Structure prediction request, 176 residues.
Amino acid sequence: MGGGGSSTRRVTFEADENENITVVKGVRLSDSVIDRMKEPSSPSGRSQSQHRSASGAVNDEELKKRIAEELALERARRDSEAQKRRLFGKILERERISSNEHLTRAILRERAATEEERQKAQRFAKQLEEKDRELKKHDAYYKEQLARLEERSAQFYKVTTEQYQKAADEVSARFK
Prediction:
């Protein structure tokens, strides 16, 4: 609504026959501001307002004072809003920093867990390879034992077959 910062403006205004204030040059005022300026701020202001309406003249000093008061109130409201925005901005920044810290911690925890899982998988892979090598050793050992047993069994069979054949030949020769 009003000017910004601490700069001052010169405002020229005039009142028409219904005491409506028209801004000729300077700051535009809303109808609600104009209505508040028309309302008396004290009992003495009410009598001056009645005196003014009776005489039809506008007291420039009082009007300037009211405009200055309204502009000061507007500036104070803007300053208050700016302070609230700064405070809200600080709160948002703290929240952003906090959430970034939480996110960073969560990422670090996930990385640590992932690294731990990777190391565990490597340990399991080594254990599996070791068991596989051990099973291959056992397999080779048992194949070797099986081959020996088969060879001994074949020899035993051959000897037994020869003894049987010899015994059968002896029995056959005795009864002939």
